[in-house]
C-alpha cells in the first residue's frame, strides 16, 4: 500500500502508534466512564442523605411547620411537596431505570422504616445557553413518594442531569504525559531494534562496491551477532574465491602471453609482408582480448586508494592525448568540485567511451554538467546510433552489432561492460541513448562523494 511507510522503522512506529492510540482511547473511555459513575454515585448518596435528614425532620415537626420547611428545600433541581394522603401516580409514569433503583436503595438505607415508592417522568431537554464539551440539560425526573411517620406523605421530584458539564483536565493531562513518555520509549526501542538491520543493509550495499571493506562489528544481541558473523564469513569466502580466481587468471594470462610472444617473433620471419601484417594484427587483437578479459573477470579490482579527482583536468588530458593522434574531441560545460574515486579507473571509463565515440562516430563531443550532488558526463558521437531494443544488450560481454560495429573496427566487445563496471564501482550508472539529431550518447552519472 502506498500509504504505508517504506522503511521498517516507519512501519513499526506506525503500528505501535496505532496500538498506543487505541489503548489510550479505550483507557480514557473507561476512565471517563468510571469517573462519571463515581461522581454520580457520590452525588446521589449525598443527595439521598440530605433528603433523608429532611424526612426525619418532617417526622418530628408539626403539620403546620412542614410546609415552610419543604418550601426551603425546594429548588430548580428538586421539588418538594407534601400530601395528606397517598399521592396519585401520573398516567405517563415510567418504570425506574438502574440509576433510579440505585438511588432508591440508597434512600432505603437511610430510611429503613419508611415506605418509599418511585417512578420516572419524561421531561423536555432545555437548550443550554452555554457551550461546554458536554451539553448540560435534563432528560427525566425521578419521583419518590415517602410516607411520613406521624401523618402524610412527601414527594421528592428530582430533575436529573444529562451528564458531566466539564472535561477532566487533570486526567487528560496525565494521559497525555503518559502517552508522550510511551512514545519516546517506543521510538527509542524501535530505533534500537532496527539499527542493526540498517547497518547490515549498508554493509551489503557497500560490499557490492568494495569487497575489501572492514568487517562488520560482531556486537549486540545474540541474533545481531549471528547475522554479523554470517555476513563477515560470506565476505571472507567471496574475497577468497575472487583471490583464487585472480591468481588462476593471472597464471592463464602469463601462459597465454608466452606462446603469443613466440608467435609474434616467428611472424617477423615471414617473407610475405601482407601475411606478416595479418599475423601481427591477429596477435595484437589476442593480446588486447586477453588483457581486457582478465580486467573484466577480475572486476577491475584495484589497490589504488580513493582520492579527490579534478574531473575537468582528467578530461582535458584525454582530449590532448587524442588530439595529438589526429582525433577530434571537444569539451563543453564544467564541474568545479572534485569527485572522489580511483583516478586510473575513472580515466579508463572516460577513455573507453571517448574512443568508442571516435571509433564509430568520427568525432567525440563531451559535455559536463552538475546534477545536484552528482556530476553527469555525456559523450556523443555522430555515428549511425543503435536500435532501441539493443541499447542494453551492447553492455553484455563480447556482444557486437553488425555490420557498423563489427570486429573490423577494432575492440574486443568488452569496453562498454568494463565502463559500466567502473561506474557502478563508484556508485554511479552508465546508459546509452540515441540523440534526436543522430548519433549515440553515452551518459555517465557519478556521485561527487564517491558513493550513492
From TrEMBL:
One of its GO terms (cellular component) is plasma membrane. Pfam families: HAMP, HATPase_c, HisKA. Its EC number is 2.7.13.3. Keywords: ATP-binding, Cell inner membrane, Cell membrane, Kinase, Membrane, Nucleotide-binding, Phosphoprotein, Transferase, Transmembrane, Transmembrane helix, Two-component regulatory system. It is an enzyme of class 2 (transferase). SUPFAM superfamilies: ATPase domain of HSP90 chaperone/DNA topoisomerase II/histidine kinase, Homodimeric domain of signal transducing histidine kinase. Residues 251-450 form the Histidine kinase domain. The chain crosses the membrane at residues 12-33, 171-190. It catalyses: ATP + protein L-histidine = ADP + protein N-phospho-L-histidine. Residues 191-243 form the HAMP domain. It is found in: Cell inner membrane. GO terms for molecular function: ATP binding; phosphorelay sensor kinase activity. SMART domains: HAMP (SM00304), HATPase_c (SM00387), HisKA (SM00388). It is a multi-pass membrane protein. Gene3D superfamilies: 1.10.287.130, Histidine kinase-like ATPase, C-terminal domain. Its main location: membrane. This is histidine kinase.
